[in-house]
Amino acid sequence: MTFLKVQDIHHTYFTKSNAVTALSNISLQVNEGEFISFLGPSGCGKTTLLSIIAGLFQPTEGRVELEGKQVATLKSEIGYMLQQDYLFPWKTIEENILLGLKINHHLDEERKAYAKDLLLQMGLSDVESLYPKQLSGGMRQRVALVRTLATEPKLLMLDEPFSALDYQTKLHLENLVSDTLKSFGKTAILVTHDIGEAIAMSDRIYLFAPSPGKIHKVFEIPEELRECSPFDTRNHPMNAEIFQTIWKEMESLGSQESHKSTP
């Protein structure tokens, strides 16, 4: 059985004066343990689709199933990591990482110990009693990842989680997140504008076209690259060719939009 199934998704935003179609005819399937990316220009509906998959709201048409069940009934089994860490500044790091467990009424000594062990695996020792303002941006994002993983989600959603970080920290976290998700066998979906990041982290890339958002092309990353760390993938001889191929497709999408807007 397919782990995640997105079937015939259409979504339209309605206002008092008009209707804007954000997504049209989106269908895809993801196997358990895969890491896929949604790549494309602004306004192509990537984050809207991510929110629909997460069960945050219902699409105008279509359905999303996780292990054969509609995601609307499985919100606690889906983790979300955003560009901002959204740690509560008045809570300690320990209180922050246990928050999801507490909200879901799953907090016990075993899960508390598991969350603290995740901190150590992320290279965050002796920070439990600190507050978010005492940590760097990269450290806060690692805490946010621990908070998400502590609830043991079946599916992890990553909405540009590294875009606000400096380049060196971004590369380090790409490796860390990739290694962590592989070791736990987690399934993940990344939304990004960064072609290099998508290639480095993904098994498969969905390139979206805008107006309305739809899947333009799908790129399968060669197994030789999938077996590498994100950092090594960026330096692999095959990377440049794949990057250029995707870049040209994105350029063609930009040209199409320019022609549409020209009177």
Automatic annotation (TrEMBL):
Keywords: ATP-binding, Nucleotide-binding, Transport. InterPro entries: AAA+_ATPase, ABC_transporter-like_ATP-bd, ABC_transporter-like_CS, ABC_transporter_ATP-bind, P-loop_NTPase. It comes from the Bacteria. SMART domains: AAA. Signal peptide: none annotated. Residues 4-235 form the ABC transporter domain. Pfam families: ABC_tran. GO terms for molecular function: ATP binding; ATP hydrolysis activity. PANTHER family: ABC TRANSPORTER ATP-BINDING PROTEIN, TAURINE IMPORT ATP-BINDING PROTEIN-RELATED. This is Spermidine/putrescine ABC transporter ATP-binding protein. It comes from Cytobacillus kochii. The lineage of its organism: Bacteria, Bacillati, Bacillota, Bacilli, Bacillales.
